[in-house]
Design brief:
This protein has about 110 residues and is an alpha+beta fold. The protein is built from 3 helices and 3 strands; from the N terminus they run αααβββ. A hairpin with a 2-residue loop joins strand 1 and strand 2. Helix 2 packs across helix 3.
Length: about 110
């Protein structure tokens, strides 16, 4: 195990065994949420968007509790310039995510 990046529990929440919440780390391994977002985005291509619930459903049958984690991972990826977060079909600032959103691979 890499001591710089302790394993996160399923929800990415800090516990004595896992260390800090991965969402709070500035640099580190890609979370399962981010990896799934990037996989689905790559499958769809830069012209097709998808709903965050599709990411959560790909991760678990009990997907609803994962939605906040998926949205947080989407925000991190958008801030890193990897994806667009869309509202009404237009890219939005990831710092102000509200309401219904869709995700898309970042256009070059």
């Amino acid at each position: 195990m890499n001591s710089l990046h302790p394993p996160a529990d399923e929800a990415g929440v800090e516990t004595p065994e896992t260390g800090p919440n991965p969402a709070s780390l500035p640099v580190g391994p890609v979370s399962r949420y981010e990896a799934t977002i990037l996989r689905i985005a790559a499958e769809r291509g830069e012209d097709k968007s998808f709903c965050p619930s599709e990411v959560a459903r790909a991760l678990s049958e009990d997907w609803r509790p994962l939605l906040n984690h998926v949205r947080a991972a989407a925000r991190r990826l958008a801030e890193a310039g990897r994806i667009d977060i869309l509202r009404h079909g237009k890219p939005i600032d990831p710092a102000v995510i509200k309401g219904v959103i869709r995700l898309r691979l970042k256009k070059p």
